[in-house]
Amino acid sequence: MNEFYEKVKDCYNDYFDRTEEVFIFAPGRVNLIGEHIDYNGGKVLPCSLSVGTYGAASKRKDGRILLVSADFSGSYIETEADVIEELKDEPESFEAFGWAAYPLGVFKKLLMRGFKLGGFEMAVSGSLPRGSGLSSSASLEILTCAVLKKLFRLELDGVTASVLSVEAERDCAGVNCGIMDQFICAMGKKDKAILLDTSTLEYEYTPFILKDYTLLIMNTKKPRRLADSKYNERRAECEKAVSVIGKKLVPERKNLCDITPEEFDRVKELLKEPVIKRARHAVYENGRTLDAVRALQNGDIALFGKLIDASHDSLRDDYEVTGIELDTIVEAARAQKGVLGARMTGAGFGGCAIALVEKESAEEAKKNIERIYKEKIGYDCEIMKAETFDSPFAV
Ligand code: GLA
Protein backbone atom coordinates (compact mmCIF):
# COMPACT_ATOMS: atom_id res chain seq x y z
CA MET A 1 0.00 0.00 0.00
CA ASN A 2 1.28 3.45 -0.83
CA GLU A 3 1.40 6.78 1.01
CA PHE A 4 -1.92 8.00 -0.48
CA TYR A 5 -3.73 4.94 0.76
CA GLU A 6 -2.48 5.69 4.28
CA LYS A 7 -3.21 9.38 3.91
CA VAL A 8 -6.86 8.99 2.94
CA LYS A 9 -7.48 6.28 5.55
CA ASP A 10 -5.93 8.44 8.27
CA CYS A 11 -7.92 11.46 7.11
CA TYR A 12 -11.15 9.42 7.19
CA ASN A 13 -10.41 8.03 10.66
CA ASP A 14 -9.49 11.49 12.03
CA TYR A 15 -12.67 13.16 10.79
CA PHE A 16 -15.21 10.44 11.29
CA ASP A 17 -13.66 8.51 14.15
CA ARG A 18 -14.39 5.07 12.71
CA THR A 19 -13.22 2.68 10.01
CA GLU A 20 -14.63 3.15 6.52
CA GLU A 21 -17.04 0.68 4.90
CA VAL A 22 -15.48 0.99 1.44
CA PHE A 23 -12.14 2.03 0.05
CA ILE A 24 -11.80 2.67 -3.68
CA PHE A 25 -9.22 3.95 -6.18
CA ALA A 26 -10.16 5.57 -9.49
CA PRO A 27 -7.38 6.25 -11.99
CA GLY A 28 -6.46 9.39 -13.88
CA ARG A 29 -5.84 9.15 -17.60
CA VAL A 30 -3.45 9.95 -20.36
CA ASN A 31 -4.65 10.23 -23.95
CA LEU A 32 -2.28 8.60 -26.43
CA ILE A 33 -3.83 10.18 -29.53
CA GLY A 34 -7.17 11.53 -30.77
CA GLU A 35 -7.09 14.95 -29.14
CA HIS A 36 -9.93 17.45 -29.08
CA ILE A 37 -12.14 15.17 -31.11
CA ASP A 38 -14.25 13.54 -28.39
CA TYR A 39 -16.75 16.37 -28.86
CA ASN A 40 -16.58 15.95 -32.65
CA GLY A 41 -17.75 12.34 -32.72
CA GLY A 42 -14.17 11.17 -33.23
CA LYS A 43 -12.15 8.16 -32.12
CA VAL A 44 -9.82 8.55 -29.15
CA LEU A 45 -7.19 6.28 -27.59
CA PRO A 46 -6.68 6.92 -23.87
CA CYS A 47 -5.17 4.75 -21.06
CA SER A 48 -6.00 4.69 -17.35
CA LEU A 49 -3.10 5.40 -14.99
CA SER A 50 -1.80 4.18 -11.65
CA VAL A 51 -2.06 7.76 -10.36
CA GLY A 52 -5.59 8.91 -9.55
CA THR A 53 -7.96 9.48 -6.64
CA TYR A 54 -8.45 7.43 -3.47
CA GLY A 55 -11.64 7.49 -1.43
CA ALA A 56 -12.70 6.01 1.93
CA ALA A 57 -16.43 6.18 2.66
CA SER A 58 -19.38 4.92 4.70
CA LYS A 59 -23.16 5.33 4.64
CA ARG A 60 -24.86 7.60 7.17
CA LYS A 61 -28.30 7.05 8.65
CA ASP A 62 -28.99 10.77 9.26
CA GLY A 63 -29.11 11.82 5.57
CA ARG A 64 -26.12 14.12 5.88
CA ILE A 65 -23.32 14.22 3.33
CA LEU A 66 -19.87 14.97 4.75
CA LEU A 67 -16.93 15.29 2.40
CA VAL A 68 -13.33 15.96 3.29
CA SER A 69 -10.28 16.33 1.10
CA ALA A 70 -6.95 15.34 2.58
CA ASP A 71 -5.26 17.48 -0.07
CA PHE A 72 -6.64 20.98 0.37
CA SER A 73 -5.49 21.14 4.02
CA GLY A 74 -8.51 19.21 5.18
CA SER A 75 -11.16 21.15 3.20
CA TYR A 76 -14.48 19.98 4.63
CA ILE A 77 -17.97 20.24 3.14
CA GLU A 78 -21.21 19.43 4.88
CA THR A 79 -24.68 19.20 3.31
CA GLU A 80 -27.67 16.88 3.13
CA ALA A 81 -29.00 14.42 0.58
CA ASP A 82 -32.36 16.25 0.60
CA VAL A 83 -30.65 19.58 -0.05
CA ILE A 84 -28.87 18.18 -3.12
CA GLU A 85 -32.10 16.64 -4.34
CA GLU A 86 -33.75 20.08 -4.24
CA LEU A 87 -30.85 21.97 -5.88
CA LYS A 88 -31.13 22.91 -9.53
CA ASP A 89 -28.50 21.17 -11.65
CA GLU A 90 -26.73 24.33 -12.74
CA PRO A 91 -23.21 25.52 -11.91
CA GLU A 92 -24.44 28.50 -9.86
CA SER A 93 -26.10 26.13 -7.37
CA PHE A 94 -22.95 24.06 -6.91
CA GLU A 95 -20.34 26.82 -7.00
CA ALA A 96 -20.17 27.31 -3.24
CA PHE A 97 -19.12 23.67 -2.77
CA GLY A 98 -15.76 24.24 -4.49
CA TRP A 99 -14.01 20.90 -5.26
CA ALA A 100 -17.02 19.04 -3.80
CA ALA A 101 -19.17 20.21 -6.75
CA TYR A 102 -17.83 17.11 -8.57
CA PRO A 103 -18.94 14.43 -6.10
CA LEU A 104 -22.13 16.32 -5.28
CA GLY A 105 -22.87 16.82 -8.98
CA VAL A 106 -22.54 13.07 -9.51
CA PHE A 107 -24.83 12.47 -6.50
CA LYS A 108 -27.40 14.81 -8.05
CA LYS A 109 -27.23 13.15 -11.46
CA LEU A 110 -27.65 9.68 -9.92
CA LEU A 111 -30.75 10.89 -8.07
CA MET A 112 -32.11 12.39 -11.30
CA ARG A 113 -31.82 8.95 -12.94
CA GLY A 114 -33.87 7.40 -10.15
CA PHE A 115 -31.09 5.75 -8.15
CA LYS A 116 -31.96 5.50 -4.44
CA LEU A 117 -29.29 7.17 -2.31
CA GLY A 118 -28.97 8.52 1.21
CA GLY A 119 -26.43 10.25 3.41
CA PHE A 120 -22.75 9.29 3.29
CA GLU A 121 -19.35 10.49 4.39
CA MET A 122 -16.19 10.32 2.32
CA ALA A 123 -12.54 11.32 2.57
CA VAL A 124 -10.58 11.69 -0.67
CA SER A 125 -6.99 12.23 -1.70
CA GLY A 126 -5.38 12.41 -5.13
CA SER A 127 -1.99 11.23 -6.33
CA LEU A 128 -2.33 13.10 -9.63
CA PRO A 129 -0.11 16.15 -9.90
CA ARG A 130 -2.49 19.09 -9.33
CA GLY A 131 -3.61 21.00 -12.43
CA SER A 132 -1.63 18.60 -14.64
CA GLY A 133 -4.44 17.82 -17.06
CA LEU A 134 -4.46 14.11 -16.21
CA SER A 135 -8.17 14.27 -15.40
CA SER A 136 -8.34 14.74 -11.67
CA SER A 137 -11.98 15.86 -11.94
CA ALA A 138 -13.10 12.84 -14.01
CA SER A 139 -11.20 10.59 -11.63
CA LEU A 140 -13.05 12.11 -8.63
CA GLU A 141 -16.41 11.79 -10.40
CA ILE A 142 -15.83 8.13 -11.26
CA LEU A 143 -14.54 7.46 -7.75
CA THR A 144 -17.81 8.90 -6.40
CA CYS A 145 -19.89 6.72 -8.75
CA ALA A 146 -17.96 3.61 -7.65
CA VAL A 147 -18.25 4.52 -3.95
CA LEU A 148 -22.00 5.17 -4.17
CA LYS A 149 -22.52 2.02 -6.21
CA LYS A 150 -20.89 -0.05 -3.48
CA LEU A 151 -22.48 1.75 -0.51
CA PHE A 152 -26.02 1.74 -1.89
CA ARG A 153 -25.74 -1.43 -4.01
CA LEU A 154 -26.63 0.37 -7.22
CA GLU A 155 -27.07 -1.38 -10.54
CA LEU A 156 -24.67 1.02 -12.20
CA ASP A 157 -22.39 0.09 -15.09
CA GLY A 158 -19.26 1.97 -16.15
CA VAL A 159 -20.70 3.42 -19.35
CA THR A 160 -23.69 4.91 -17.50
CA ALA A 161 -21.34 6.15 -14.77
CA SER A 162 -19.23 7.97 -17.35
CA VAL A 163 -22.23 9.47 -19.14
CA LEU A 164 -23.74 10.87 -15.95
CA SER A 165 -20.34 12.10 -14.74
CA VAL A 166 -19.99 14.13 -17.94
CA GLU A 167 -23.46 15.57 -17.29
CA ALA A 168 -22.36 16.46 -13.74
CA GLU A 169 -19.22 18.14 -15.04
CA ARG A 170 -21.22 20.13 -17.57
CA ASP A 171 -24.31 21.04 -15.55
CA CYS A 172 -22.92 21.24 -12.01
CA ALA A 173 -19.27 22.23 -12.52
CA GLY A 174 -19.77 24.28 -15.69
CA VAL A 175 -17.19 22.58 -17.93
CA ASN A 176 -18.49 21.53 -21.31
CA CYS A 177 -16.11 18.60 -21.83
CA GLY A 178 -16.39 15.51 -24.04
CA ILE A 179 -16.75 11.96 -22.67
CA MET A 180 -13.22 10.64 -23.09
CA ASP A 181 -11.90 11.33 -19.58
CA GLN A 182 -14.82 9.93 -17.62
CA PHE A 183 -15.04 6.91 -19.91
CA ILE A 184 -11.41 5.87 -19.52
CA CYS A 185 -11.37 6.58 -15.76
CA ALA A 186 -14.35 4.21 -15.43
CA MET A 187 -13.44 1.54 -17.97
CA GLY A 188 -9.64 1.49 -18.44
CA LYS A 189 -7.55 -1.62 -17.83
CA LYS A 190 -3.92 -2.30 -17.02
CA ASP A 191 -1.73 -2.75 -20.13
CA LYS A 192 -4.58 -1.71 -22.42
CA ALA A 193 -5.68 1.41 -24.21
CA ILE A 194 -9.32 1.91 -25.17
CA LEU A 195 -10.27 2.80 -28.71
CA LEU A 196 -13.49 4.69 -28.06
CA ASP A 197 -15.84 5.86 -30.77
CA THR A 198 -17.30 8.96 -29.13
CA SER A 199 -20.22 9.15 -31.55
CA THR A 200 -21.63 5.72 -30.58
CA LEU A 201 -19.75 4.88 -27.34
CA GLU A 202 -18.66 1.62 -28.94
CA TYR A 203 -15.26 0.68 -27.62
CA GLU A 204 -12.56 -1.94 -27.80
CA TYR A 205 -9.52 -2.68 -25.68
CA THR A 206 -6.22 -2.75 -27.49
CA PRO A 207 -2.98 -4.00 -25.92
CA PHE A 208 -0.68 -1.22 -24.82
CA ILE A 209 2.55 -3.03 -24.11
CA LEU A 210 5.60 -1.17 -25.30
CA LYS A 211 8.25 -3.87 -24.58
CA ASP A 212 11.53 -2.01 -25.19
CA TYR A 213 9.90 1.42 -24.91
CA THR A 214 8.53 3.58 -22.14
CA LEU A 215 5.94 6.34 -22.16
CA LEU A 216 7.08 9.41 -20.25
CA ILE A 217 4.49 11.84 -18.90
CA MET A 218 6.01 15.31 -18.81
CA ASN A 219 4.22 17.84 -16.65
CA THR A 220 4.96 21.42 -17.76
CA LYS A 221 3.60 22.64 -14.41
CA LYS A 222 1.99 25.49 -16.28
CA PRO A 223 -1.29 25.72 -14.44
CA ARG A 224 -4.35 25.35 -16.61
CA ARG A 225 -8.01 25.34 -15.89
CA LEU A 226 -10.34 23.94 -18.47
CA ALA A 227 -13.12 26.36 -17.61
CA ASP A 228 -10.79 29.33 -18.10
CA SER A 229 -9.14 28.04 -21.22
CA LYS A 230 -10.17 28.41 -24.80
CA TYR A 231 -11.76 24.97 -24.68
CA ASN A 232 -15.31 26.20 -25.17
CA GLU A 233 -14.20 28.54 -27.94
CA ARG A 234 -12.70 25.59 -29.84
CA ARG A 235 -15.89 23.60 -29.40
CA ALA A 236 -17.90 26.48 -30.82
CA GLU A 237 -15.55 26.77 -33.81
CA CYS A 238 -16.01 23.06 -34.55
CA GLU A 239 -19.79 23.37 -34.28
CA LYS A 240 -19.69 26.28 -36.68
CA ALA A 241 -17.61 24.25 -39.17
CA VAL A 242 -19.89 21.24 -39.17
CA SER A 243 -23.02 23.36 -39.41
CA VAL A 244 -21.65 24.88 -42.63
CA ILE A 245 -19.89 22.01 -44.41
CA GLY A 246 -21.78 19.05 -42.91
CA LYS A 247 -24.92 20.15 -44.78
CA LYS A 248 -23.14 20.34 -48.12
CA LEU A 249 -22.23 16.66 -48.08
CA VAL A 250 -24.44 13.78 -49.08
CA PRO A 251 -25.42 12.17 -46.82
CA GLU A 252 -25.41 15.10 -44.41
CA ARG A 253 -22.76 14.85 -41.67
CA LYS A 254 -23.56 15.66 -38.06
CA ASN A 255 -20.01 15.35 -36.71
CA LEU A 256 -16.77 16.80 -38.01
CA CYS A 257 -15.13 13.42 -37.62
CA ASP A 258 -17.64 11.80 -39.99
CA ILE A 259 -16.11 13.87 -42.77
CA THR A 260 -13.24 12.24 -44.69
CA PRO A 261 -10.13 14.25 -45.65
CA GLU A 262 -11.18 14.05 -49.35
CA GLU A 263 -14.65 15.41 -48.60
CA PHE A 264 -13.16 18.10 -46.43
CA ASP A 265 -10.88 19.28 -49.24
CA ARG A 266 -13.89 19.57 -51.54
CA VAL A 267 -15.94 21.81 -49.24
CA LYS A 268 -13.46 23.59 -46.97
CA GLU A 269 -13.52 26.82 -49.01
CA LEU A 270 -17.00 27.44 -47.59
CA LEU A 271 -15.32 28.14 -44.23
CA LYS A 272 -13.23 31.08 -43.10
CA GLU A 273 -10.01 31.04 -41.07
CA PRO A 274 -9.42 30.11 -38.30
CA VAL A 275 -12.38 27.71 -38.58
CA ILE A 276 -10.80 25.92 -41.59
CA LYS A 277 -7.71 25.11 -39.51
CA ARG A 278 -9.71 23.92 -36.53
CA ALA A 279 -11.83 21.62 -38.70
CA ARG A 280 -8.75 20.30 -40.55
CA HIS A 281 -7.27 19.22 -37.23
CA ALA A 282 -10.40 17.28 -36.26
CA VAL A 283 -10.81 15.60 -39.66
CA TYR A 284 -7.18 14.43 -39.85
CA GLU A 285 -6.72 13.58 -36.16
CA ASN A 286 -9.47 10.98 -36.41
CA GLY A 287 -7.57 9.14 -39.16
CA ARG A 288 -4.35 9.36 -37.16
CA THR A 289 -6.01 7.62 -34.21
CA LEU A 290 -7.07 4.70 -36.37
CA ASP A 291 -3.59 4.48 -37.92
CA ALA A 292 -2.07 4.56 -34.42
CA VAL A 293 -4.19 1.61 -33.25
CA ARG A 294 -3.11 -0.39 -36.28
CA ALA A 295 0.53 0.55 -35.66
CA LEU A 296 0.29 -0.63 -32.03
CA GLN A 297 -1.42 -3.85 -33.05
CA ASN A 298 1.33 -4.51 -35.62
CA GLY A 299 4.07 -3.69 -33.11
CA ASP A 300 5.18 -0.78 -35.32
CA ILE A 301 6.26 1.55 -32.52
CA ALA A 302 8.22 3.78 -34.92
CA LEU A 303 5.06 4.57 -36.89
CA PHE A 304 3.14 5.10 -33.66
CA GLY A 305 5.80 7.68 -32.70
CA LYS A 306 5.46 9.49 -36.02
CA LEU A 307 1.69 9.74 -35.62
CA ILE A 308 2.16 11.18 -32.13
CA ASP A 309 4.47 13.82 -33.59
CA ALA A 310 1.98 14.68 -36.33
CA SER A 311 -0.80 15.02 -33.76
CA HIS A 312 1.17 17.56 -31.74
CA ASP A 313 2.10 19.56 -34.83
CA SER A 314 -1.54 19.78 -35.82
CA LEU A 315 -2.58 20.83 -32.30
CA ARG A 316 0.14 23.48 -32.36
CA ASP A 317 -0.38 24.89 -35.86
CA ASP A 318 -4.04 24.27 -36.68
CA TYR A 319 -5.85 23.87 -33.39
CA GLU A 320 -3.57 26.31 -31.55
CA VAL A 321 -3.89 24.79 -28.08
CA THR A 322 -0.23 24.23 -27.17
CA GLY A 323 1.78 27.28 -26.06
CA ILE A 324 5.44 27.87 -25.28
CA GLU A 325 5.66 25.44 -22.35
CA LEU A 326 4.17 22.45 -24.17
CA ASP A 327 6.06 23.20 -27.38
CA THR A 328 9.34 23.55 -25.49
CA ILE A 329 8.96 20.28 -23.63
CA VAL A 330 7.92 18.43 -26.79
CA GLU A 331 10.85 19.86 -28.80
CA ALA A 332 13.25 19.02 -25.98
CA ALA A 333 11.96 15.45 -25.91
CA ARG A 334 12.15 15.02 -29.68
CA ALA A 335 15.82 16.08 -29.61
CA GLN A 336 16.77 13.19 -27.29
CA LYS A 337 18.36 9.91 -28.30
CA GLY A 338 15.86 7.05 -28.39
CA VAL A 339 12.74 9.25 -28.53
CA LEU A 340 10.31 8.14 -31.26
CA GLY A 341 7.64 10.81 -30.79
CA ALA A 342 6.22 13.42 -28.41
CA ARG A 343 2.99 15.35 -28.12
CA MET A 344 0.80 17.32 -25.74
CA THR A 345 -2.02 15.33 -24.13
CA GLY A 346 -5.42 16.46 -22.82
CA ALA A 347 -6.91 19.89 -23.29
CA GLY A 348 -3.59 21.70 -23.80
CA PHE A 349 -2.64 25.31 -22.92
CA GLY A 350 -0.38 23.79 -20.23
CA GLY A 351 -0.67 20.50 -18.37
CA CYS A 352 1.19 17.45 -19.69
CA ALA A 353 2.87 16.08 -22.79
CA ILE A 354 3.97 12.51 -23.48
CA ALA A 355 7.11 11.08 -25.08
CA LEU A 356 7.74 7.62 -26.39
CA VAL A 357 11.33 6.63 -25.60
CA GLU A 358 13.55 3.55 -25.70
CA LYS A 359 13.77 2.08 -22.19
CA GLU A 360 17.55 2.22 -22.10
CA SER A 361 17.63 5.92 -23.06
CA ALA A 362 14.78 7.01 -20.77
CA GLU A 363 16.80 8.19 -17.75
CA GLU A 364 19.21 10.21 -19.85
CA ALA A 365 16.37 11.72 -21.90
CA LYS A 366 14.48 12.65 -18.72
CA LYS A 367 17.49 14.49 -17.26
CA ASN A 368 18.14 16.39 -20.48
CA ILE A 369 14.51 17.40 -20.97
CA GLU A 370 14.35 18.67 -17.36
CA ARG A 371 17.51 20.74 -17.90
CA ILE A 372 16.45 22.22 -21.26
CA TYR A 373 12.97 23.05 -19.95
CA LYS A 374 14.31 24.85 -16.89
CA GLU A 375 16.81 26.82 -18.98
CA LYS A 376 14.14 28.02 -21.40
CA ILE A 377 11.02 28.36 -19.21
CA GLY A 378 12.63 29.31 -15.92
CA TYR A 379 11.06 26.73 -13.62
CA ASP A 380 11.13 22.94 -13.22
CA CYS A 381 8.96 20.45 -15.04
CA GLU A 382 8.17 17.03 -13.59
CA ILE A 383 8.61 13.80 -15.53
CA MET A 384 7.30 10.36 -14.62
CA LYS A 385 6.97 7.00 -16.32
CA ALA A 386 3.39 6.14 -17.22
CA GLU A 387 1.99 3.03 -15.60
CA THR A 388 -1.43 1.81 -16.65
CA PHE A 389 -3.95 0.58 -14.08
CA ASP A 390 -7.41 -1.03 -13.73
CA SER A 391 -10.46 1.21 -13.34
CA PRO A 392 -13.17 0.43 -10.78
CA PHE A 393 -15.88 -0.43 -13.33
CA ALA A 394 -13.63 -2.57 -15.52
CA VAL A 395 -12.70 -5.25 -12.98
C1 GLA B 1 -10.21 17.58 -21.86
C2 GLA B 1 -11.67 17.18 -21.92
C3 GLA B 1 -11.85 15.96 -22.83
C4 GLA B 1 -11.18 16.17 -24.18
C5 GLA B 1 -9.74 16.67 -24.02
C6 GLA B 1 -9.11 17.03 -25.33
O1 GLA B 1 -9.45 16.59 -21.22
O2 GLA B 1 -12.17 16.87 -20.64
O3 GLA B 1 -13.22 15.68 -22.97
O4 GLA B 1 -11.94 17.04 -24.98
O5 GLA B 1 -9.70 17.81 -23.16
O6 GLA B 1 -8.95 15.91 -26.15
Please provide a brief summary of the model.
The protein has 395 residues and is an alpha+beta fold. The chain is built from 13 helices and twelve strands. The strands form three sheets. It has a five-stranded mixed beta sheet, with helices on both faces. Strands 10-11-9-12 form a four-stranded antiparallel beta sheet. Strands 2-7-8 form a three-stranded antiparallel beta sheet, sandwiched between helices.
What does this structure look like?
With 395 residues, the protein is an alpha+beta fold. The chain has a domain at 3-207: Ribosomal Protein S5, domain 2, CATH 3.30.230.10. It has 13 helices and twelve strands. The strands form three sheets. The chain has a five-stranded mixed sheet with strand order 1-3-6-4-5, with helices on both faces. It has a four-stranded antiparallel sheet with strand order 10-11-9-12. Helix 5 crosses helix 6 (158-171) and helix 10 (275-297) packs antiparallel against helix 11. The longest helix has 23 residues, at 275-297. The mean pLDDT is 95. Alpha-D-galactopyranose binds at residues 31, 35-36, 38-39, 177-178, 180-181, 346-347.
